[in-house]
Backbone:
């Protein structure tokens, strides 16, 4: 039962990521729906289990986690907007200087993402032990990898089903 629920949640997340990827290609913000919310809820539950947090620690952790999540969403939105700007430049007769400006903006956003991640992990020092922070980093990496694999598998499965028709 537990395995089936996990698979369903991952499937929903995969579908939401597919929609988000399609939306990002059109320079729209990622789709946020019930599936994405369920995935985020599942992720939080799993983090609590994996990190072995008590109630007080989880409250402090998730306050910072949610704050960081909002900052990262804002940065991703700005990145999507910059990519949309590149799309506009490609359609028009933009100068090399126009492209250089957008590239500079994208590089700056990448730096901000990196700095935000580092600061966030450092800010967790007074909430989590070093072992928990290490476990959190591993969890985040594996969770993202599993989502990507699920999306890829769903895309391949959908492609195969289309070819059969």
Residues:
């Amino acid at each position: 039962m537990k395995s089936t629920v996990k698979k369903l949640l991952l499937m929903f997340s995969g579908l939401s990521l597919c929609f988000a990827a399609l939306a990002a290609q059109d320079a729209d913000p990622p789709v946020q729906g019930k599936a994405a919310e369920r995935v985020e809820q599942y992720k939080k539950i799993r983090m609590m289990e994996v990190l072995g947090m008590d109630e007080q620690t989880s409250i402090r952790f998730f306050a910072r986690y949610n704050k960081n999540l909002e900052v990262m969403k804002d940065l991703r939105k700005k990145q999507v907007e910059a990519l949309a700007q590149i799309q506009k430049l490609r359609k028009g007769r933009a100068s090399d200087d126009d492209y250089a400006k957008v590239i500079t903006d994208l590089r700056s956003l990448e730096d901000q993402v990196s700095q935000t991640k580092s600061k966030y992990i450092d800010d967790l020092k007074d909430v989590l032990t070093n072992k928990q922070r290490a476990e959190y980093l591993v969890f985040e990496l594996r969770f993202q990898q599993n989502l990507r694999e699920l999306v890829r598998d769903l895309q391949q499965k959908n492609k195969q089903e289309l070819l059969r028709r």
